[in-house]
Amino acid sequence: MVKNIARSVTITLTILALLYVSFRSNETIDLSKYSTEGLDLNYTVSLDETTVNDNPSALSDSDFEFSPYLGKSFVGFKEALAFKESGGDYNSVNTYGYLGKYQFGSETLKLIGIYNPASFLKNPRLQEKAFIANSARNKWILRRDIKNFVGKRINGIIITESGILAAAHLAGPGSVKNYLRSYGLDNFEDGYGTTVHYYMKRFSGYDTSFIKANREAKAI
Prior knowledge:
The chain is mainly alpha-helical. It has helices spanning 2-25, 74-86, 106-111, 117-121, 124-141, 143-149, 161-171, 173-181, 196-202; strands spanning 153-154, 157-158. Residues 31-36 and 39-67 have low confidence and may be disordered.
């Protein structure tokens, strides 16, 4: 008997609570008492910033670019070099027939085991392997020059390993040897006017310790 009475009271109270909430939800809330007037607000966007909705044409293409900061890491090195070579485009073919993200010539590809340029152009993973293999091969060829010249100043720039490897990618290890051993007098220039000296300077100071010198390095 007592249990039945307690159960009835509980059910009655629950029904009354639900009715109260229902009536309260139908009331109109007076928002006029809630204001930010006089408060010092911290915005994450400048108040004078033009939004896309205000004026979409005010935004340039660069506003939509994703630019992670890679610093002087090895990834930063290869991506910076790729951007200079092709804008980072795996499908790029320049006017001299150089291919892919890193702009390889067909003869260089053969040295690292790639004999089908058309297939290479369609294979981003292989292009990344080719960059590693070619860098490893160049590092072996230039190992003595890296030892002898890194830290020295030539034509106003400090020679670094990353600068040497970048220049070798541009002009081949032989041209880099000539540049270093002539102390900058023999400065190879490619068909677009880019020099060994320019690559030495632009790609100076990156961490290329990831690349291990390997005479027989192959991408396949």
